[in-house]
Amino acid sequence: MNNIGYKEAAAFLMERNGFVVFTHGNPDGDTIGSAAALVRCLRSMGKDAVAVCPDDIPRKLCPLDKDGIFLHSIPDEIGTLVAVDVASSAMLGGFEQYFADKEFDLAIDHHRVNTLPCKKRLLKDNYIANGEIIYELMTELGVKADLAMAEALYTAICSDSGGFKYCNTRPETYEYAADFLRAGIDFAEINRRLFDQKTQTQIALEKEAYNSLHLYHGGKLAVVAIDREKAERIGATDSDFEVVNQIPRQILGVEVSAVIREREDCVKASLRSNEYFDVSELAKSYGGGGHVHAAGFKFNGNVYEVEEALVKKLDGVL
Ligand SMILES: [Mn+2]
């Protein structure tokens, strides 16, 4: 592992070419926005650059998928391999096998622990969004954000900060947002798309989540478990679940929340905490990872077994 700072990262990008920038699987606004902004920045420097996303880009992020930035398969010719917002090989989703014997040239990340095999790592583990690192790197490179870069970076930072409301949002976070507003982005439209708009399927899934909600440990733990049969009845796909992750943590008195869903290959638990509990440690104990207040893990078993395991594990701890 070779942790580097902005100067070295900028020098590295300047000397290399043929960039392929990978996002994490089950992509969110931070990884997609970071990749789009970095590819645009590199192209503005006269470099060849594309981004690759292991999964379909969610509807609300599709406006960033333009100008041939995103490929949906891995190109044959790769000059420089970069990862943005990818903390571990497991986060590469369907591409995990492809990378089994490979190393990234550069990983840019803000997760608490980054275990992705790489030669160089630019890590700011106290930043609310990876997009902030991309913007600071662009500043080091002397690249000013144009409208499209500003849209991508605003999407990245706004997504991971929950609309500038989670802790770890810094004064700089707001200053960067101000820069993007000055670049002329339609922030109201982006906010609406990121946070307000929901599909009918997502609303049906929310109803199911309220029905499936259970409270434990004096109301400090809230769990929503949705098995495959329920998800299929609604027609919900993996990316629809994002709207559900927020539901259990909103309840007054809840410290830790979990949304557990069944995927094709495994069960996935998304953990959130509100104040004092470190869910990244909890996720780690199941082989997962993430941030202090948002983390996740995969599990072999059914959703109700995960619910039971979490209830047991947090007994007397909250
Ligand atoms: Mn992120």
Q: Can you put this structure into words, describing what you see?
A:
By secondary structure, the chain is α/β, with parallel strands linked by helices. The protein has eleven helices and twelve strands. The chain folds into two domains: 6-195, Alpha-Beta Complex (inorganic pyrophosphatase (n-terminal core)); 200-313, Diaminopimelate Epimerase, Chain A, domain 1 (Roll). The chain is 36% helix and 19% strand. The strands form two sheets. It has a six-stranded parallel beta sheet with strand order 3-2-1-4-5-6. A hairpin with a 4-residue loop joins β9 and β10. The longest helix is centred in the first third of the chain and has 16 residues, at 29-44. The model has no long low-confidence stretch (mean pLDDT 96). It binds manganese (II) ion.
Short description:
The chain has 318 residues and is of the alpha/beta class. Helices cover 36% and strands 19% of the residues.
Whole-number mean pLDDT: 96
Q: Decide which structural class fits the backbone.
A: alpha/beta
Helix content: 25-40%
Number of strands: 12
